Predict the 3D structure of the following.
Amino acid sequence: MAEPEASSAAANGGGRLRNAFGGVLSAFTLLLIGVLAFSIRLFSVIKYESVIHEFDPYFNFRVTQFLSKNGIYEFWNWFDDRTWYPLGRVIGGTVYPGLTLTAGTIWWLLNSLNIPLSVETVCVFTAPIFSAYASWATYLLTKEAKGTGAGLMAAAILAMVPSYISRSVAGSYDNEAVAIFALIFTFYLYVKTLNTGSLFYATLNALSYFYMVCSWGGYTFIINLIPMHVLLCIVTGRYSSRLYIAYAPLVILGTLLAALVPVVGFNAVMTSEHFASFLVFIILHVVALVYYIKGLLTPRLFKVAMTLVISVGLAVCFAVVAVLVALVASSPTKGWSGRSLSLLDPTYASKYIPIIASVSEHQPPTWPSYFMDINVLAFLIPAGIISCFLPLSDASSFMVLYLVTAVYFSGVMVRLMLVLAPAACILSGIALSEVFGVLTRSLKFQLSKLFDDSSSAVPASGDSSSESSTNSTKSENRNEKSETAPKEKPSKKNRKKEKEMAESVPVKPNKKEKRLLVLPFELSVMGILLLIVLGGFYVVHCVWAAAEAYSAPSIVLTSRSRDGLHVFDDFREAYAWLSHNTDVDDKVASWWDYGYQTTAMANRTVIVDNNTWNNTHIATVGTAMSSPEKAAWEIFNSLDVKYVLVVFGGLVGYPSDDINKFLWMVRIGGGVFPHIKEPDYLRDGQYRVDAQATPTMLNCLMYKLCYYRFVETDGKGFDRVRGYEIGKKHFKLTHFEEVFTTHHWMVRIYKLKPQKNRVRGKLKKLKSGAKSSSTLAAGRKNPWQ
């Protein structure tokens, strides 16, 4: 009796020790993964400096500065008169405040602890910090589906995936910096509630969804994906009370909380993006009522009751659908936003909303971009899908559905590769965990058999026979002990131990299962080595992407040549000139790409910016850039513009300049003002600025502002971006004057000349011609046509 007690106690103690050691090792691994996710995103700070990147982050930085200086009440009521002149913008009601409030809270906490960091420093490092949180959230989500090993693998992969790095490097202070963490964490809490049926996790899920709504407009992906999964579970017969608890509180609490966000408001219940969640909510209650009645009534009465419930449920569904159709019938887009329609119909934006189609991140991705952003994960995803079906659970089916929808949306818009990245990492982590499990188990079995054969003189007849003999011997010994122990003292304590020992006895698999689970020694070693090499290639690619491809801030450009590294800091040079050499109330006109930077860095009023909420205003600027010099001067003068800024890359070879963007100015302007026609700027359907360019192109304001005095640089006027000499080389400006050009000619600033005084002799001549002032006013050309 003492021997079984001692052996069982030792086994239990060893199991507890092993579990404790595994927990400590997992926690330490997660800590290292968080450090990795944070540190791999610091190349931009190490190679350049601590600076805000891109365009939108400058607006977020400016808003965070205002919040930290004036407080949250002033933030909600802030009317910004330095943007969209003369309209202005109500900031508190038109932004997703999650990023700003998060960074502002971090800054306040640090300063409360006497850690005097600037607002800019906090904004620069917000994205790397939340990338570590996103990795930990990925671990939790994957663990709920396939265990700890898969969770650790998925977290490590997400920490380095280039698609996520591209939007979360140090300095990338955009909404996605915190939104991806909120997205993954919301999915984790949904799956956790689905597995446990806990109202506590359901409430946390609604709060996490609220944070996602505050952070990014992509929250509509969540409120459509989760109803799709609920409907899938209902259709496949996997309804349970846990499913009801996971979904119903999310719809009620989540919608109420989402309506509290000013930029969302009643859109949470009035737009088509949210209607699917309400319809599935009704269907779920009908199904729940059917299951409830089934438990109360006899089969015969249940058929009658089910007919009644289904009839009433269908009637309610049709009534709700009719109400929704009536609500959206008056809208030309049927209640959908322009961006949502461009996702459902990839050709919609190019046909009807050129302002959306003009954004580079709204273009469909190419196949090389998939390899660039997820690399070898593209080959591991199919294996992960197969693993999710072995066996299929509610959590694993959600992962597969998440992947399928993310693949579709990433194929429509390259920006949504960011949504695909977590799904690709989770499925790849599951696949790698399963493969490593099979290979290591096979290797362990083969090594144990090899050592057993070497220690014993009895030759083994085969893999399956030796394993079966070993297992049968052990099971016989354990059975003998378990049978003899109760005979000596059939107490309650011993019966409990007997049950534990019986449960600990492994079930002997048959030979077919062993052949499927165990691989030869050589194949196992080769497979592990191949996976290690594959992981090495992935790590090298991720480090290269973080260090070279995604670390350069667009505000500071670099290039390498035989002379070494060249730094182009023309943007900050131009904004500094505007800040120091113009009046505070001066208005600056440029294409909308540079509006946020001009307002944040030069502190000057702009006509349009990156918010793109008013298509007519943007079309006005596009029309001015597409018009001849005099007509453009009249348009800008009517808007009280004093300076015009253009970006030109023909001298240094910068391809993202205004000449390459000019056709979008023509299209957007022509969409509102019909006299601007794209064919007038094309020669035989080709866009040219050389001698073959059309007269309309050579005489428009954009051409003149970019190529003014350009021939003086090399005597030929050779454009390095377009690859040929310009058409019109020698010309003068009559209504604009050049006031500043940066060192590399990348940014050029012009000032509107004041209107010329009327000459006295000409005025007398006009009076002698008996022309009245009313006739002059009638004959004056309209600058908007």
